[in-house]
Amino acid sequence: MSLFRHHVKQKARLIHVYDIGSASVGGAVVLLEHGKKARIMYTVRRDVFMRETPDAKRFRDEILTALSGVVEDIAKHAPAHIRFTKHALLRPEKAFFMLASPWYASQTRHVHVSFKRPTRIRQIDLEERAEREYQDFLKSPEVLALGDTSHTLFDRRIIQVSVNGYETSVPEGKEATTLDMSIVFSIIPSDAATRMKEICERAFSSVEIVFQTFSLATFDIVRNKEPNLSECMLLDVSGEVSEASFVREGVLWETVSFPVGKLTLVRRIAELLGSTPDEALSSLRMYAENGFSREEKMRIGKAVETAAESWMRALRHAVSVSVPEEQMPSSVRLASDADVLSWLRSVLEHEEMSPQAVDMLYVHDLCDMSSGITYDSFLVVGSAFSARICNENNPHRFSHTQGRRS
After folding, report:
1. Nearest residue to 187 (alpha-carbon basis) of 145, 241, 247, 128
2. Which of 119, 151, 273, 351 lies at 20 to 30 Å from 225 by C-alpha?
3. What does the DSSP 8-state code read for residue 392?
4. What angle do helix axes 294-322 and 262-273 make, rounded to 10 degrees?
5. Mean pLDDT, rounded, of the chain
6. How many domains are there within the chain?
7. Which residues, 6 or more positions from 238, have their beta carbon under 8 angstroms from its beta carbon?
8. Whole-angstrom Cα distance, residue 106 to residue 99?
9. Alpha carbon distance 13, 91 (integer Å)
10. d(CA 17, CA 387)
């Protein structure tokens, strides 16, 4: 089975996209028609109750409960949004689960091979090399951090390959003196995968389940919107976790996460103000929107700035152990909830280690939206990426080079 993409023309189809985060679960029903943008027909999101003290087991159970609620909501309410269209008889073919940290472990493995004499590249050689890299990945700290549990491999994907220094999407049959590959591997604890599948299949028994990562989806979207972008940091600040992915030489080089996210900041602000987390979140939103009087802003601002510094310390540490200072990307693409996105951008821009440019991830043009549908940027990214995958014969194998100039 080839690791590379092959495009196929498809009839109109429905898919589901589920965004599995660290503080909420979102779901979307998406219509795919050949030659058109993906159209999001329905969205729903369920937040997880914000606790003063995080608990790993309770967190997992609450996220799965939220997923169950989202699936039930889609089963009950989404058909009304499709019933009076020409696609009323369509049923979902696939359900894409877009995973954020800490639900998965992933690593990009970089391979360089030199041959003593020109050697013809065979598909079996690529497969064998990928398997050796996978076995090494299973011994990595990323996998060990998931604990002593069985794992399910859900992604093994070549995102770039070069023969004799020239990038190509079809290396098979070429004569090579050097071969370079970048391969992404992603796994999920098997028990978590089983629970997610069971929840979905209770309502949609015939749907095919596909797991993906939000970090790879973001990378793919950014590279197709900015084909000449060679290096940057993709920063996703979600509920309990922040995730930084580093793009180098046009390749998703490495992804690291650290347990300080939006809700971590909110709990810190609540502690400093002597308020509840919900009150602190409201204060943060008003602070970000300049909604306080001068006196109140000064009082709230000290707590907000202290919390922001704790997040920046965690980010600095994650960056320092992953990227040498001289290789720090010159730009950032930032993704987070809309209510704190602009504030987080300003925090980064005032940081000494900050890259030259901090841009919010712009995704408004990726998908069409049916009227009356709540806009959700994370579901838009997941839907656009899933639509691209559905245009491949093999949904787990493709190179990101599509759309790039040769």
Report:
1. 145
2. 351
3. B
4. 140
5. 85
6. 1
7. 21, 22, 23, 100, 261, 262, 336, 337
8. 11
9. 8
10. 10
320 neighbors 244 (Cβ within 8 angstroms): no
Instruction: Please give the structure tokens belonging to residue 51.
Output: 């606790």
* Per-residue CA distances from 253 to 28, 112, 322 (Å): 29, 14, 10
Give the pLDDT confidence of 118-168 residue by residue, as tens digits. 999 999 989 999 999 999 999 988 888 887 679 999 999 888 899 999 999
Cβ-defined contacts of 66-71 (< 8 Å, 24+): 66/24, 66/25, 67/18, 67/20, 67/25, 67/196, 67/199, 68/199, 69/25, 70/18, 70/25, 70/26, 70/27, 70/44, 70/45, 70/46, 71/18, 71/27, 71/199, 71/200, 71/202, 71/203, 71/204
Let me know if residue 338 belongs to a domain: no
3-state secondary structure (DSSP) of residue 211:
strand
Residue 223 to residue 330: CA distance in whole angstroms:
16
pLDDT tens, position by position, 11-52? 889 999 999 988 899 999 999 998 899 999 999 999 887 665
* Tokens found for residue 86: 């020409």
| Domain CATH number, residue 63 | 3.30.420.40
Burial 188-217 (b: 16+ CB within 10 A, else e): bbeebbebbbebbeebbeebebbbbbbbbb
99 alpha carbon, distance to own chain's centre:
6
Q: How far apart are alpha carbons 172 and 119 in whole angstroms?
A: 11
Closest listed residue to residue 386, CA positions, set 395, 374, 378, 394: 395
**H-run or E-run covering 340:** helix 338-349
Its pTM stands at 0.85
Query: How many residues are recorded in the chain?
Result: 406
239 φ/ψ angles, rounded to the nearest 5 degrees: -60, -65
What CA–CA distance (Å, rounded) separates 71 from 17?
Answer: 10
The verdict on residue 125 lying in a domain is no
Please indicate, yes or no, if residue 8 is contained in any of the structural domains. no
Distance (Å, whole) CA 242 – CA 258: 6
Cβ 254 vs Cβ 245: under 8 Å:
yes
Query: Torsions phi, psi of 123, nearest 5?
Result: -60, -40
Contact 301, 308 (CB under 8 A): no
State how far the Cα of 383 lies from the Cα of 19, in Å rounded to an integer.
10
Structural domain including 85 reads 13-103+191-218+364-390
Q: Is residue 131 part of a domain?
A: no
Q: Strand, coil or helix: what is 268?
A: helix
